[in-house]
Each structure stands twice: as structure tokens, then as C-alpha cells.
Amino acid sequence: MHREHEPYEPYEEPGHRPDGYDDDHLVHGDHDRTPRRPRSRRVWLVAVGGVFTALVVVGGYGAYNVFNAVSGGSSAGGGGSTTTASKGPQTPPTTEQADAVAKDFLAAWGRGDIGAAVGLTDRPEAARMALTSFHDGVPARSLTLTGTGPAASGTPSEPVLGYRVRAEFDGTTEAWEYESTLGVLRAADGRVLVRWSPTVVHPKLSAGQSIVVKALPDPVAKPTDRKGRPLDAFPSLSSVLPQIPPPDGAKAVTGQAVVLSGGGQQSEQLFVLTPPSAPQVKLTIDADLQQVAEEAVKKQAAGGKPASLVAVQPSTGNILAMAYAPQGGFNRAVGGGQAPGSTMKVITAAALLEAGVTPDTVVPCKETTNSPRSWHNDEPGSHPDYTLSDDFIHSCNTGFIDKGLEKLQPNTLATVARDQFGLGLQWRIGIPSRDATIPTPGSKDEAAAAYIGQGQIQVNSLLMASVAATVQSGTFRQPVLREDVKRVTAPGRLPSDVAQSLRSMMARTATQGTARTPMSGLSGQIGAKTGTAEAGSDANNSWFIAYRNDLAVAAEVEGGGHGFSAAGVAAAQVLKAGGGKG
Fold it and tell me: Which residues of the chain have pLDDT under 50?
């Protein structure tokens, strides 16, 4: 029974540490003084039907055990020396004796009294090493051990009893629980003892091994798409994801686990106390569109042709897809540098429109022209009545060269490209990328080449996708892979009437001009421009930029030929999949 009492002065009981007095509970039996502990620590011990049930709840390993006072003590005794089993006939331990020594052992272990616990075993030194290792390696806030009754593996001469271990730790609400067994025997001197084995501590523990709490390796942040979906499976992103740093100030959380190690065996994780976690990084990529882009590029790059494609959302500048081939190699989509061919005529047209030329201004498309270098068009013939819009949709080189040399200053093209389209500024998209190279020409030949996207101009799919996006929205928004990166802004803005004229010409190109075949069947607000860049070989590079509603795409296939073929087919495949919404 329980009754309230006044606390007594501390005293030291043989075999135990002086842990103070319990001012909450008085144990049964005739005792002059009752040991006490802090109020938060209690021990409950129950024996039911001759089968031990020991529940030890302690507030740390140093709590005092009151089991002996409740039960009247064990008949097993103490002793610290190694005890061997009897060589002669011995009376097996009774059920009550086995229960009693098991209770005492678990109670001593549970409160961290290693000396008392090992004295109840037949191999005290081995037990001391194992229990000390467990005590030091597993810093539990509390250890609860509960008997579960006789185990099937026991014998009449050596009972085996089961028990459950529950360890609780600071910093987590998760508890580590497992079950094990211990055997009980009668030693040569008649004492009833626990037969020591490493499996008493844990069923998987063997000689030479230890159980410890270890820090888990810091997790590597794995960026996801904008909806939190994994991106690991995409070949074009395999080299990109490791380059994505966590958000500023965000840190990985180091986890902890209970680990079984040593003995020449591979470490085994027994229980995770606190799982590791990495800062979540969401990219602007859309996994569905990325899949389509991967397939489109792979198809057009068959036969070993290098290729790339980037899809951008004009209203935000977010990069929705980025694919390139060979997959897993150099990321030419954002790091490449090539002449864009006639897709550059979008910027040349913008410069001409700002110089006073209108879409309806007659700009003859001659079969050849000179700068003094001789220039020609992909299609033979002369069209003296073509307007600027006609030259644009049919991609007439000579008309753009002649009007460019007439109307534009040497630095005009580079200025319009930088101030209104953002090309030539230092972009920070979230991973390393290459900025555009649009130098001021030093001669009329260099200027003529620049107006049709040849010569020293160097761009990539990312940059040209942004050009299409700028036309669609009328505003340059620097593309990004992460919304938290600091974007650059263009010094100027594309005039609204110029943007409208460019959209009109790109729409005509998509429906009546060189881009009509790949763009056929696409609805909504559409626009496109083809490009065929001479690369000093028989097979020209194929370029295509386009938009459909709030999705802009640029694609290039090295050695792919005309822009409407390889690059156009890839870009249209992505626009069909992701550009349906207005």
C-alpha cells in the first residue's frame, strides 16, 4: 500500500549508490528508511501467476531501483566473479526462482546499475563489457524493460524468459522497441543466475559487436520540379541537379540512428531516432513537360547529332524544360554557343522597326546581294515587291542585309539585343550558364552576317527561348531554374508597337511561312521563326523558336538541316504538349 510520509536523511545501502529518498512512495516491508529519488522517476514491478513482469521506468540511468524492497529481494544473490554451471547433477531453477533473478537483472540494467546486473550473470566480466558498451553507446533518457513470460526455446533444466525493451530519447518522440530473451541456470554454487550471451542485450548482437547511436550522413538535397515531383530520372538533369545549392540560410538536418556495428560485419541500422532532412529545393521545371522535351530531343538527335531544347514560361521567365543530347554530357542547352541563323532576324526586325521601317515597308528580296561579300537566300529567285513582313516569314537574307546596312548603325543590333531582349547581360539562372555574345561588327561584312544570325554571334537554346518569350509577353524576364535567384533586368523595354508587329510577323510565319509545317494544327496564340545556320559543312544547323500561349520554346539540332525540319519538329512536339492553355 502507499502512504504519505516525511522524507528521511540519505544513507548508503550496500551494493547501491546513495540516490536520496522517495517522498512520494513508501515501499512495503519493515525498513527503517526508505530510499528516495526525484519525483519524476518511478519503478513499478509486478509479478503475475508466477511469471515475471518487470516494468522499470526511470528518468535516466542513475535512478534508484526499489524492486528488492517491493519483492523482498531475489534468492539469486550478487557476486562478481565468473560462475560456471555445475559439473554434477543440479536441481533446475524453479519458475519462481527464474522469475526472481530475471526481474532483478532487468531492474538493475534498467536503472543503469551495471555492477548489480552483472553480478546476477554467470559471466560477470563479459556482461559488464557488453552492458557498459550499451549504456555508453545508447544514451536513452529512459529504459523500460517488461517481461513477456517463458520463451519456447527454454528447457526444464534452463528456462528461457522473454522481455521487451523500450528506449526513449531526448529530442524525439520516437521510441526504440525490440524483444529479446535470457536464459536462467543454476550455477555450481547453487545460485540461480542469468546465462550471459550478447543476445541478452539485443537478439542480433554477437561477440565483438556494439550498439551505438550514430549520426547519419547529411542528406544531399535533391531538387524537385515545381510540384514537388522527383527529377532524378531525367538524363538531361543528371548533371544539373548536383549543381543546385540549397536556399540561402537553409541547412541540412543531421539525423541519428541506433546502429549495430563491428565484428567484421557491415553496419546495420536498427532504428532511426531522427531522420536526416535536406532543405527542399523546388525548381521551375515541370516534370511532365521535361519528359516530352527529353523524348523530342532524343528523337531528333538520333544518329549522334548534338541537340538541345529549352522551354520558358513568358509570363514568369520560369524554365519549364531543358533537354540536350548526347544525354548526360555537356549541357549545350544553357552552356553552348552557336550562331542562331535566321532566328536572329527577330532582333534584327525589332531594330529595323525602331529605326522607322514598318512591317508593310517594301524591302525587296533580291536573289543575291553584296556587302561587299556575296550573299544569297535558301530559295532561289528574286521578289522585288516583298515587304519586311514578307522577308521575315520567308526568311529572306538579302532583304534583311540590305535594309540593315541602310538603316542601322554598327552597334544598333547589340544594343537592342541587350537593352530590350536581355542578351549580353550576366544571367544567373540557378546553375552556370553562358551569356550571349553579340559583338559590334568591325566591317560591313561582319554587320551583314550579324543581321542574319551568322558570323561571331554565339547563343544557345536558353537565350533564344527567352527571345521568343520576350516577343510573346512584350517584356524581358530573365529565365531562371529557381524562383529565389536574383534576376537581371534589361535597361530598356521592347516598345509595345514593335512587340505587336513582331507577334504579327511571327504568327504569319507559323501559319503561312517557313514554320507552317511543324506548327500546323496548333491553336491559340502562336508564333514562330525558323533558322538555318551555316556551319562550314554540307549539313547546316537547324534552329527553331516559337511560342504558343504562355509557353515559348527554342530548339537546335547540329547538322539537322533546315529549321523547319529537325528543330521545328522537336519544338512543336513540346508546344503541343504544354502550350494549350492561354
Answer: 1-86, 582
